[in-house]
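Lab channel / #folding
Pinned by the channel admin:
"Please post every new chain as: sequence first, then the structure tokens as a reply. Keep commentary short and put observations after the output so the thread stays searchable."

First post following the new format, from NK:
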Amino acid sequence: MNKPKVTYPANEVVGFCASTAAMLAKYKTQMIAAKVDPTDIIAQLPVESKAVSDANDVQEGIKTQLKDATIVVNDAVATAYNDASNGCDMVITAFGRGSSQAQEAINLRKSVRPAAHHETPAPAPAKPTP
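Reply from TO:
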């Protein structure tokens, strides 16, 4: 059976499961009288809720590790770029800005592209209705 894609935050789904289980338990007797038995789902929701919570904890730990690793990588990139850029400046200073060696150093530094920033463009203003 294919499950529909769900994009709700994990913590909200955990709360939803707990609230639904409580509601089903509250109305269980009346539901059974109406020939709808929620016993199985009442037992299953806490199990599923714990699975969501545990998986979310693992994911959050990985996100933290990635953030920490990103800081380390960014620091290393900044150090390496600055040192290489200083090397280009040394060539420019040694041979003069108009030299072919300086142009090579300038072109080499220009060949490094800055990281693309993924910014969402602002929505266009709404046109007034006449």
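NK: Residues 10-110 form one domain.
TO: also worth noting, The chain has one domain: 10-110.
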